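Retro notes
What went well: the complex prediction finally ran end to end.
Inputs used:
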Amino acid sequence: MMQPMVIETKGLTKHYGSFEAVNDLSLLVESGSITGFLGQNGAGKSSTIRMLLGMMRPTRGTGQVLGFDIADPAASVRMRQRIAYVAEDKRLFDYMTVGQLIAFTRAFFPSWCHDTERELIDEFRLPLELSIKKLSKGMRTQTALLLAFARGAELLILDEPTEGLDPVSTEKVLGLVVRAAANGMSVFFSSHQIAEVEQVADRVLMIDSGRLVLDTSIDSVKEHFRRVRGVFAEPHDSAIGALPGVRRVDVDGRIVSVMASHNVNEIVRYLRADSATNVEVLPVTLKDVLLGSIGTAKR
Amino acid sequence: MSLLLKPNPSSGVPIYVQLKEQIRHAVEIGALRPGEPLPAMRLMAEQLVINANTVARVYRELEGEGLLVLRHGVGAFVSDFGPVAQQAAARTGSLNTARGEVRDLVRRLRDEGVTSDEIRRLVEAELGQGRMAAGGLAPTARLAATPATRGVP
């Protein structure tokens, strides 16, 4: 049986005046997965998330989240009952204490899990008497995640959840992401930290200048992506860019460096036939792929 | 978790491959004995802070290879019968021998003035082609030196 999709968009586009923040974005996010939404600052991650949540209207395109139409305000309210969203600025009700915020949120959700609430208060050692505005960034994130877990959300959308956290707090938040997915939640989190996406995600979606430049499983990057480097006797210009699987070609004098998503054997054969004196195949990391994908979005 | 180390997400090697190798190694050196249980998948995922699907894949594949036995609802155990357990015992012996030989070699090279980094690179280069052919990932694989592109995925 096919996994139901928790997020599905077709041609999602957002223009601010003449600026194209998000451009023709078609995404599929499977239920029960952890999806890392990777991109540089300003690549369009937050705009996409805000459209998914119905907080902003797309200029063009359509989308469903948990089967609800994101452009329909009535559906959006019901949809958000089942989604937990932790914003980039981790904004919470600053004037409340941690305890008040928990009690306030609990009142909205009949299926609230009291055991989870108690466990996480203990685990995070959250100071219930302290006002939200006095919390550290890490504790704000933990508080927001506690609310998400205890209300039993189906989909967790996190906008830069580890931004500004120290390494220990980052690892704790990632641990919670892992736990959420192990408990059957789907997680969609944006980040510009490549290593953390590699560490916990099943799939990676990468956007650059508002366009999707990579949509693949993390393991597939490491198993199939390669850098193929040919050294030539003379400065060389290669037409290798036309071969299937070639994502990017960098020519530096006598060295032709190819980032390939597949079809490595044929690329190697091509370079040899083209009289390369040495051809190497190197593994690539997600970081290489990210750096190799920036600026290649076809306008 | 002192049995297993956190995988390095930024190495070119997929996390599930790193974890498989660690578990295999733990069995080979006797840190995990036949019949002993492995941590529950979710626990392992949380402690190593990696995706639970990754741990599930590792357990499944190691079961397919005969190293682990998965008992539904109970957990994963190191297989205590069949060739794998015996092989593991034999491997423990041959690994100990090999360790001695490597120690001697490294000492000899150091005496000759070869640095640690140089030794590491030499060993990596020696291993490189074999690992590519076996479907694994080598840091570099110099294809110019080999007649064919065999083993390149």
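What we learned: Chain A has a mean pLDDT of 88.
What to try next: split runs per interface for comparison.
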